[in-house]
Specification:
This protein is 64% helix and 1% strand. The protein contains 22 helices and two strands. Strands 1-2 form a two-stranded antiparallel ribbon. Strand 1 and strand 2 form a beta hairpin.
Length: 483
Amino acid sequence: MNLPMVLRILGLMLMIFSLSMLPPIGVSFAFGDGHHQPFVYAFLVVVSAGLALWLPVRRVHRDLRLRDGFLVVALFWVCLGLAGATPLLISDVPELSFTDAVFEAVSGFTTTGATVIVGLDDLPKSILYYRQQIQWLGGMGIIVLAVALLPVLGIGGMSLYKAETPGPVKDEKLTPRIAHTAKALWLVYLTLTAACALAYYVAGMEAFDAIGHAFATLSTGGFSSYDASMAHFQSATIEMVAVFFMAAGGTSFALHFVMFRQRSARIYWRDPEFRAYVGTLAGLTLGVSAYLYLAGSYGSPLEALRYGSFQVVSLQTSTGFVTADFSSWVGALPPLLMLATFIGGCAGSTGGGIKVIRWLLVIKQGLAELRRLVHPSAEIPVKLAAKPVPVRVMNAVGGFFAMYLLLFGAMMLLLMVVGLDQVTAWSAIATTINNTGPGLGAVAVHFHDIPDAAKWVCALAMLIGRLELFTLIILFTPDFWRK
């Protein structure tokens, strides 16, 4: 293990991250909220911590192995939660405990969108902006941004990129050099965010809200400046803009990049995962909307479609915006929508969940097994886009599902041990490990009232979900630490 190199990179990344404290200072002065000091102090604390890690090993120059990359990613996301909590902990508005500040920061960076803050409408603009900003940085992965910057400092980033990028297949590069790949992804991310902010502004949002909610939409983060979330605006036009860009955030950014490069929308439909993704969203939207109308929850099919489509897209893409209290909807709808969070977005998107590609491969594997029962001697490979899927990938997908179910069950039981009821415990882990936000029961609106022990379990679930299980869990295996 190349520990000096790991510490050097962590120090550099913390110093880079400390710069994110500067925009909220500018927002504070621009709006005159008098709340710039927490960010000034937080900047000094974080940059000092980065310097303390970097200075003793600043002259170390060695190649970074994949194992080192996993350690950097895992440690940095833990450090990110602590560093990101600094201004929230220093600030007296809102007054947050250490546990609550870390929970809020981890929720933002992992794009979960679960909050412990009550009274968002009355918070200073600088705090509101900071919450939106951290989920935007976490959306594409602040480490992918570092991959684009670290080569300038003489540090290769391929191992970091493999450890950070979500999805079952991680070895594909969009450009010959990994730094160019990271820059290309960020350019697409920035372009779509700007387009979303402009669309929100044209649809009727004020500039501050348009930028903040664009950050939350493309990152599929779900933090809002208002306690009522998107319901605050009471605008069907704004909701349609949100649905479109939430769906875009849940789509592979590699597809977006190729589409921009080739200038052909056909790129999307050629991708089997995207077709399954759109089909799932459409099927759930029609089913939920019909259920709402037939149950009499809304007076017209169009109104049922408006609220049904928004909640379906928001929850499956793991964004977590809401325009209605879906937890009080009739019949099977609340658990159905929570189950949709397990599907998630496409691999390579900012969405959470298990990812559509894994579900697609598992379903194809199941159908292949049924055919093998009828034809025991036949060789029936699992194919995707008419190409056989390597056995190694299928084994990885099977292992992911097994580990996912094991961790989900264990953490749900932990929440029940600390006093949460079954519905709350189940939905709290579902919404945090899938990086979604809203749940059922006591966490339908916020996580403020659950015990601190439960908040730490949920924060761990957010990190596990954001790093797709293995990047974090691998650190607890003996083989990882053997030479």
